[in-house]
Design goal:
Helix 10 crosses helix 11. The chain is built from 14 helices and 15 strands. The protein is globular. It has a 7-stranded mixed β-sheet, with no helix packed on it. Strands 8-9-10-11-12 form a 5-stranded parallel β-sheet, sandwiched between helices. Strands 5-6-7 form a 3-stranded parallel β-sheet. Bound molecules: zinc ion. The site of zinc ion has 5 residues, from loops.
Length: 436
C-alpha cells in the first residue's frame, strides 16, 4: 500500500513538472475583441492553450522559460480573429432526399461515424465552438466527450441531446413512419405531453449529459408532419420545460416559427428563439423585456427554399412548408435587428451542408447588419448565449486560444470568412498559415 502511495505521489509531482506549452502567433492584423479597433503588427502569445499576452511588433520576443516547448505561427500577412461560434447545428445528420429510407437501414452507430466527419467539417470552416441543437440518442453528447478527450478532431460542443417535442410535433422521431415498425416515442425519447412528462423529458436529457435543452415550441419545416407551424406545446408545458431546465442549470432554446409559439415561448422565459420566422412587434418587445436572443438561421431558409423547387427533393408536406417559410426569413431578420433584438449567429447546419456555415454571414449583411455586427454576433454574442463568455468569443488574456485567419479584412468583405486560412483551437494548430 505504501509503495503504491509513493508511486502515486511521484506521478503527481511529474505532472506538475510537465513543461509549459507556448504558441507564438505573429499577426499582421489582430481583431482580438470584435467591435473594438483591430491591432496592426502584433504578437499573440499563447500559454497552455490560453491567451497569455499581446505584444507590440511582429518580432516581439515572448519570454518563454527554458525547458518549455514553443511553436511559431506566422500570420504576418493575414487578419486574425477569434474562432467562430455557430449556435445552431446538427452534427449527427445532413439532410438528403433518401433520409427516410436510411432510417430503416441505419442505426446510431452510423450517425456516430457521420458525426465525426461533420464535426471536423465545422471546425475546418473556422467554427471552433458549436451548439448542437438536437440529435437522436446520445451521439453528440458522446462526440463532445470524445473531442474533449482528444480522441476525435472537432469543435468544442455544447450539446442539447434530443429535442423535447409534443407527440406528432417537429421533434417526434416517429412522424410519418409505420408505428408497427418504429413504435411510439415517449418522454425517454424527448416526446412529452402534459407538464409532468415535460419535466421528466428535460430531466432525462440532463441525466444523459445535455448541456442545454432544445424544445420545439411550434411545428417545423423538415418533419414529415402536416401539423402546421403554429404553437404546439401549451403554455403550462412550456413553463414546465423552461423551469425544469433552469432549475438544473441549463438554458432553454426554443425552435419556433409561428408567432403564437414564439411569443408564448418568450413569455415562458426561454433563453433563445431559433428561426423566429413569423415574429412581430410584440415578439420584439418580449425579446428585449426578457433578454432573450434570436438565432436566425437564414441559411436554413435559403437552403429549404432552393431545395423545395427541386421536384421530389422533399415530401410534398415538407416542400409546401419550405416554400412559405424560406422567403420570409430575411424580412424577419430585418425586423428583429432593426428593433434591437440581440442576435446570436446560428445556421441550422445539417439542414444545409456541413462546412458551409459561414454563408450565413453574407445573408446577415443582406438583412441589414454591418459585417462587423455579423462578426460580433458569431463571437461575443454567441459566446454569451452559450454561457461561455469566460472561455471564448474574444482573444483577451485568460481565454482559450481559439483563433482563425483570413486574407483581407472581413469587416470590409464578410464573405472572406467562407475561406478561412489558419485555425487554432485551445492553442493547438489545427491548420497552419498556408492551409496545411
Ligand atoms: Zn435545427
Amino acid at each position: 500500500m505504501i509503495a503504491g502511495a509513493v508511486v502515486l505521489l511521484s506521478g503527481t509531482a511529474a505532472m506538475a513538472r510537465q513543461a509549459d506549452r507556448y504558441l507564438v502567433v505573429r499577426c499582421g492584423t489582430l481583431l482580438d475583441v470584435p467591435g473594438t479597433p483591430a491591432k496592426k503588427n502584433v504578437t499573440l502569445v499563447v500559454k497552455n492553450g490560453a491567451v497569455d499576452s499581446v505584444l507590440t511588433g511582429l518580432d516581439a520576443k515572448a519570454s518563454i522559460p527554458a525547458g518549455a516547448s514553443s511553436e511559431e505561427l506566422n500570420l504576418s500577412d493575414q487578419f486574425v480573429l477569434p474562432g467562430l461560434i455557430d449556435c445552431h447545428v446538427h452534427l449527427a445528420m445532413e439532410f438528403t432526399p433518401d433520409m427516410r429510407l436510411r432510417m430503416l437501414a441505419e442505426n446510431e452507430v452510423d450517425s456516430a461515424f457521420r458525426s465525426v466527419m461533420f464535426a471536423k467539417k465545422n471546425l475546418m470552416a473556422g467554427f471552433t465552438t458549436v451548439r448542437d441543437l438536437g440529435a437522436g440518442g446520445e451521439v453528440v453528447v458522446k462526440l463532445r466527450d470524445a473531442i474533449n478527450r482528444g480522441d476525435v478532431v472537432g469543435p468544442r460542443i455544447i450539446a442539447a441531446g434530443k429535442a423535447i417535442s409534443v407527440t406528432g410535433g417537429h421533434g417526434d422521431p416517429t412522424n410519418g413512419v409505420r408505428s408497427d415498425v418504429f413504435g411510439l416515442a415517449g418522454a425517454e425519447d424527448g416526446v412529452a405531453d402534459g407538464a409532468d412528462e415535460c419535466r421528466k423529458a428535460v430531466r432525462n436529457q440532463v441525466k444523459l449529459g445535455a448541456d442545454c435543452i432544445k424544445l420545439t415550441a411550434t411545428g417545423g419545416v423538415l418533419s414529415p408532419s402536416s401539423a402546421g407551424l403554429a404553437q404546439h406545446f401549451f403554455d403550462d408545458e412550456l413553463k414546465a420545460i423552461v423551469e425544469t431546465a433552469h432549475a438544473m442549470g441549463r438554458k432553454a432554446a426554443a425552435h419556433a416559427h409561428g408567432v403564437d409559439g414564439i411569443n408564448a415561448a418568450l413569455r415562458a422565459g426561454v433563453d433563445s428563439i431559433e428561426h423566429g420566422t413569423y415574429l412581430d412587434d410584440e415578439s420584439v418587445r418580449l425579446f428585449k423585456e426578457k433578454g432573450a436572443y434570436l438565432v436566425p438561421t437564414l441559411l436554413a431558409g435559403e437552403t429549404v427554399s432552393a431545395n423545395a423547387k427541386v421536384p421530389g427533393y422533399y415530401l410534398k408536406v415538407v416542400a409546401d412548408k419550405a416554400a412559405i417559410v424560406g422567403p420570409r426569413m430575411l424580412e424577419m431578420f430585418r425586423k428583429a435587428h432593426g428593433g434591437g433584438v440581440k442576435i446570436a449567429f446560428g445556421t441550422d447546419t445539417g439542414v444545409s451542408t456541413h462546412g458551409e456555415n459561414a454563408r450565413e454571414f453574407g445573408l446577415m449583411v443582406k438583412g441589414g447588419m454591418t459585417p462587423e455586427q455579423a462578426i460580433i454576433s458569431a463571437t461575443i454574442t454567441a459566446a454569451e448565449l452559450c454561457g461561455m463568455s469566460r472561455l471564448v468569443g474574444t482573444l483577451e488574456p485568460g481565454k482559450r486560444a481559439d483563433l482563425i485567419s483570413v486574407r483581407g479584412d472581413p469587416r470590409a468583405d464578410v464573405t472572406l470568412l467562407e475561406r478561412v486560412g489558419a485555425i487554432v483551437k485551445d492553442g493547438a494548430v489545427v491548420r497552419g498559415a498556408d492551409g496545411d
